[in-house]
Design brief:
Layout (H helix, E strand, L loop, with lengths): L4 H25 L12 H20 L3 H26 L4 H23 L16 H23 L1 H6 L8 H21 L3 H26 L4 H25 L3
Length: about 250
Amino acid sequence: MKYLVTPGRFLFAIAITAFGIQHFIYAITGAGLGPPWTPVNHLLAYAIGAGLIAAGVGMATGTQVRCAGILIAAVCVARALLCYAPKLAANIRDPGPWTSAFEILAMGGASLVLAATFTTWRSHADRTGARPSALFQAGRFLFAISLIVFGIQHFLYATFIATLITPWIPGHLFWAYFVGVAFVASALAIASGILAPPAATLLGTMFLLWVVVLHAPRVAAALHNANEWTSLLVALAMSGADFIVAGALARGD
């Protein structure tokens, strides 16, 4: 499982680069296929898009991965605080801001974990008494907290979530609750370190299956629907994020 960081990094980088492309489409057309994190003007869309694409390419090629990870984490945390925190304060029972905020916080957490794997700390990991870096721990717990929120939402809104499951899959309500349990169990495993690599690996596999089974058909049926594209990319990013966390925990970063 320690080798999962590399495929996870590629999946995550593809999603981040695609988010950047969404911003450019928005900046050029004013609508198009996004973006997922709506800027207030076209100039800002170009700036954010360029930053996301640069970070995604850096992650994919292994160039300045630490800087790219910290950049993505900073953007995600800033977006959550500036955009979604006020919405939650205004209406804490609204599930929309909870989902959006913690999706990007989960990506930010995974970005910090990835950044930690590319620090000089790795070269000393075989030394007796070596401890995980603060960067790694911050990303790990931010990721775990996000999973807890996702799990709670699956319990609270199971009936609605059941409607999103592909029609040919039986037991929609069962799967809604099952996924909620999976989120909470994975979060506890990642936070505690008990069975953390297999838990994160299974969760990453689940997200990747969602990309293929759930989101890809929905995108194919509505190629110009920005929300469907964004949902697919979020699931792809979460799959890569889980594999990054699984690999990092397995090798003790």
